[in-house]
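Hi R.,

As promised, here are both runs. First protein below:
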Amino acid sequence: MSETIASSTNSGTKCHHNPQVSCGDCRLNAICLPISLHIDDIDRLDEIIQRGRPLQKGEHLYRANEPFQSVYAVRSGTIKAVNITNDGQEQVTGFYLPGEILGMDGIANNRYTNSAVALETAAVCEIPFSRLEDLSIQLPTLQRHFFQLMSKEITSDQQLITLLSKNSAEERIAALLLSISTRNHNRHLSATSFRLPMSRADIGNYLGLTIETVSRVLSRFQKNDLLSVDKKEINILDMDGLKRVANVEPSCADQ
């Protein structure tokens, strides 16, 4: 569920929705870029990146079965990946936070297998894949980093399958909260106090639970002093206790 991504080096410049911010200035550059890239190489990567207008809540970044052309880095906001099942039901397959890359599901067959939908106002960097391939050949560090991203995507999918097939509702929700906690920490945000960008319905859909179960488990966590919950605002009161619920060793640094 969680991703091990490089910690940020610095930059007080905030990207948010500003399409004029370059990779070198972006506060997320050490998360979605290999930190060993030389500044000149970052400039070469920046030349191929396209930054359009922000997506509004509910707007599609791309749709399933559309031709694959680009991968995307989230600059601000949150995007969910969804798949439509054979019976026409929507299945949430992932949540992407700032600094994370999506769209790699389209590489295999040159068509996106999922749709990507903004959960809130969101800005993205579009990276045309054909130009990224050419640049990766010239910059081995960039190529290796992209391979690592694809490996993490596979690992995340495998972890989700394991989570849905074996774990209880409490374990699933605890694991998701710990994942968001870790990803916030990697962006130099609070690991214990954050706002859930997704609805209870999206959480339930993603974890294979009903909305009622999600709400009941969060209430139980609050009653047991693991969390304080105020609508979408989450404050983790007992991190080790939450890790125990998720079957993660309290001494582990990563979820």
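And here is the second one, sequence first, then its structure tokens:
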Amino acid sequence: MPEVPNENRYVRVIGHRNPDTDSICSAIAYSKLRNILHPEENSIPCRAGALNRETEYVLSRFSVPVPQLCLDVSPQIRDVDIRRMPGVDGETSLRKAWMIMRDQEIDTLCIVENERLKGVITVKDIATANMDQLNTHMLAEAHTSYQNIVETLDAEVLAGDVKGKVVQGKIMIAAGSPEQMEQGMEPGDVVILGNRAEGQLTAIEMDAGCIVVCVGSRVSRTILRAAEERGTILLRTNLNTYVAGQMITQAAPIRHYMVSDGLLTFTMDTLVEDATRIMAKVRHRYFPVLSGDRTYLGVVSRRNLMNLHKKQLVLVDHNEKTQAAEGLEEAEVLEIIDHHRLNAPETDGPVYFRNVPVGCTCTILWQMYQENDVEIPPTTAGLMLSAILSDTLMFRSPTCTPIDQKAARDLAKIAGVDLEEYADAMFEAGGDITGKTAEEIFNGDYKRFTCGDIRFGVGQSSYMSEKNRKAAEALVAPYLATAQIKQTLHYIFYMFTDVRTSTTEVYMVGENADAVIRRAFQAEVTDNVAVLPGVVSRKKQMIPALINAMKAMAEEE
């Protein structure tokens, strides 16, 4: 059976780790636009982390489902064309299993019951079973059905009912006289013989379980009647006695020889890297693939792994590898829509890259909807408006441009909301830290950056009320040192921004972090805290100043 392409492939439109409102809303808005412009590609919005409270409010306000979580875009078994080989029943005979393997050109079969994997059998297992022909009790030990014998010998049932009955005795080839048969035969035996009526009658009288008459020989009415009366199953095959004796052992069911313990299986979520490593350690060629609920799906081989379909991504609101989901280098980036500084990852081929110096990614998307003459639905407009208000701090951020303001006012009309009232409600909801842990607040909007050999992180939380801001500062400040150690960074700077006064209190950890802030902003630092009036933008005010300060300090060393 040929490999079947995975029908569940799609393009993931995804923002940065620790997503903010723009990251989530731009993923949703752009996936909708792409599905109109490129319906054949099936774009879906994804997120690379947990939602912050502000974004939760926005999605709830406009009744929009939370995008699919996607922390790692490394290739998985689901990105491979697995072989959709049907499972086989455990009662299948060894011979039939071998014929399936031969016809399908596969050396492993999966035994399945009620869509659940019970075991596997390989060509080697079948060969080993066939070498066990000296064991005349093998059919009984395997509880072999008479139906399997009929199929294996391509036999005709002349007398008796084979349905639901299994072999109880040994295999016996009756080559001698009736007297010799009496010496070695026991009730329930399977007797293979030719057209000798005396031998046939002797086997019936000694309560044989089954008689196999070979070479298509004619069976007399007397023998047929005797078999019916004694309940003996009487079969006739065109095979000669030698061949029938050789082949009958192949009627044993494969469940008796299958391997069921310690099976090496993969799921659709197994990383290709892990699967490759496991396959290299064993001699098997094919491995069962199961779904999340352990339903059997098919098999995968080393050859399948070579035909890998990388996950296709569209990056929104970021273009830095350190901010992207894990495994970015193993995925295929199709597009990047962003409004931040350039530090784009390497790609295998050219990509559509749209980078515009505006305050929000959703402003760029507003332009793209207009350029393509696509009407923006009210719900999507509400999401895009929320992103612009969040990223520009309701037009207070220096990153805000007239285009952002125009887009926001246009989107507010489409969404049917009062811009100022909605912004206040959104920021108030986002500033509520009730029930939040320090780590949850910290990761609400946090990004990592590099400057030469220096690795640093910058987080930001924006608040409409001083009460919420002070509560967040008290909770997060002690956690910064832990986060720095965990992430092995030189510095962490965390911005607590008061939206109403356009002021940021920045907390910092790291050796000489205070010197970096003094150099960047000529600000006083007390107990690793600095007050920065007028600084509200991480992208336009904080990051450039920090990088310039770090470069200057490095040159002076």
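A quick note on the second one: The domain at 438-556 is CATH 3.10.310.20 (Diaminopimelate Epimerase; Chain A, domain 1). Let me know what you think.

Best,
J.
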